[in-house]
Amino acid sequence: CPAVDKLFFSVAKECGANSIGVILTGMGQDGAKELLEMRKNGAVTIGQDEKTSVVYGMPKVAYETGAVEKQFALETIPDAIKMASKLIKKKINNCEKGESYQ
Fold first, then answer.
1. Which residues of the chain register pLDDT less than 70?
2. Which CATH architecture does the domain made up of 3-96 adopt?
3. pTM over cut 0.85
4. Do residues 71 and 47 lie in contact, with contact meaning Cβ atoms separated by under 8 Å?
Protein backbone atom coordinates (compact mmCIF):
# COMPACT_ATOMS: atom_id res chain seq x y z
CA CYS A 1 0.00 0.00 0.00
CA PRO A 2 1.55 3.31 -1.05
CA ALA A 3 2.30 5.71 1.80
CA VAL A 4 0.15 8.44 0.27
CA ASP A 5 -2.89 6.15 0.53
CA LYS A 6 -2.40 5.79 4.27
CA LEU A 7 -1.67 9.49 4.70
CA PHE A 8 -4.75 10.72 2.81
CA PHE A 9 -6.99 8.13 4.53
CA SER A 10 -5.77 9.25 7.94
CA VAL A 11 -6.22 12.94 7.09
CA ALA A 12 -9.74 12.29 5.75
CA LYS A 13 -10.69 10.50 8.94
CA GLU A 14 -9.03 12.80 11.48
CA CYS A 15 -9.04 16.27 9.90
CA GLY A 16 -11.91 16.41 7.41
CA ALA A 17 -12.76 19.95 6.39
CA ASN A 18 -9.70 21.34 8.17
CA SER A 19 -7.34 19.91 5.56
CA ILE A 20 -5.93 20.39 2.09
CA GLY A 21 -4.98 17.47 -0.13
CA VAL A 22 -2.53 17.93 -2.99
CA ILE A 23 -1.62 15.31 -5.57
CA LEU A 24 1.36 15.89 -7.84
CA THR A 25 2.94 14.19 -10.85
CA GLY A 26 3.42 10.44 -10.64
CA MET A 27 2.60 7.10 -12.20
CA GLY A 28 -0.41 5.00 -11.32
CA GLN A 29 -3.41 5.78 -9.19
CA ASP A 30 -1.79 6.17 -5.78
CA GLY A 31 -3.84 8.35 -3.47
CA ALA A 32 -6.83 8.91 -5.78
CA LYS A 33 -9.40 6.93 -3.78
CA GLU A 34 -8.22 8.35 -0.46
CA LEU A 35 -8.09 11.91 -1.82
CA LEU A 36 -11.72 11.44 -2.81
CA GLU A 37 -12.47 10.48 0.80
CA MET A 38 -10.77 13.68 1.91
CA ARG A 39 -12.95 15.68 -0.47
CA LYS A 40 -16.11 13.89 0.69
CA ASN A 41 -15.15 14.87 4.25
CA GLY A 42 -14.87 18.54 3.29
CA ALA A 43 -11.18 18.93 2.49
CA VAL A 44 -9.94 21.24 -0.23
CA THR A 45 -8.35 19.04 -2.91
CA ILE A 46 -5.87 20.19 -5.52
CA GLY A 47 -4.16 18.40 -8.39
CA GLN A 48 -1.28 19.24 -10.66
CA ASP A 49 -2.36 19.94 -14.24
CA GLU A 50 -1.35 17.85 -17.23
CA LYS A 51 0.79 20.55 -18.84
CA THR A 52 3.22 20.83 -15.92
CA SER A 53 3.22 17.15 -14.88
CA VAL A 54 6.20 15.02 -15.89
CA VAL A 55 3.90 11.98 -15.65
CA TYR A 56 0.18 12.81 -15.64
CA GLY A 57 -0.90 9.54 -14.03
CA MET A 58 -1.79 10.12 -10.40
CA PRO A 59 -3.24 13.62 -10.91
CA LYS A 60 -5.27 12.41 -13.92
CA VAL A 61 -6.85 9.49 -12.07
CA ALA A 62 -7.61 11.70 -9.07
CA TYR A 63 -9.20 14.33 -11.32
CA GLU A 64 -11.22 11.84 -13.34
CA THR A 65 -12.62 10.19 -10.20
CA GLY A 66 -13.75 13.54 -8.82
CA ALA A 67 -11.17 13.60 -6.04
CA VAL A 68 -9.59 16.83 -7.30
CA GLU A 69 -11.66 20.00 -7.10
CA LYS A 70 -9.30 22.07 -9.23
CA GLN A 71 -6.10 21.51 -11.16
CA PHE A 72 -3.25 24.01 -11.14
CA ALA A 73 0.08 24.48 -12.85
CA LEU A 74 2.90 23.36 -10.57
CA GLU A 75 4.19 26.89 -10.04
CA THR A 76 0.77 28.14 -8.87
CA ILE A 77 0.05 25.35 -6.38
CA PRO A 78 1.74 27.15 -3.44
CA ASP A 79 -0.56 30.15 -3.94
CA ALA A 80 -3.59 27.85 -4.20
CA ILE A 81 -2.60 26.24 -0.90
CA LYS A 82 -2.24 29.67 0.74
CA MET A 83 -5.70 30.72 -0.47
CA ALA A 84 -7.26 27.45 0.70
CA SER A 85 -5.58 27.83 4.10
CA LYS A 86 -7.10 31.29 4.49
CA LEU A 87 -10.57 29.93 3.67
CA ILE A 88 -10.19 27.14 6.22
CA LYS A 89 -8.98 29.59 8.86
CA LYS A 90 -11.94 31.87 8.15
CA LYS A 91 -14.38 28.94 8.56
CA ILE A 92 -12.77 27.96 11.86
CA ASN A 93 -12.88 31.56 13.13
CA ASN A 94 -16.55 31.86 12.15
CA CYS A 95 -17.30 28.61 13.95
CA GLU A 96 -15.59 29.90 17.09
CA LYS A 97 -17.88 32.95 16.89
CA GLY A 98 -20.90 30.65 16.88
CA GLU A 99 -21.59 30.86 13.17
CA SER A 100 -22.21 27.86 10.95
CA TYR A 101 -19.06 25.96 9.99
CA GLN A 102 -20.10 25.36 6.39
1. 96, 98-102
2. 3-Layer(aba) Sandwich (3.40)
3. yes
4. yes
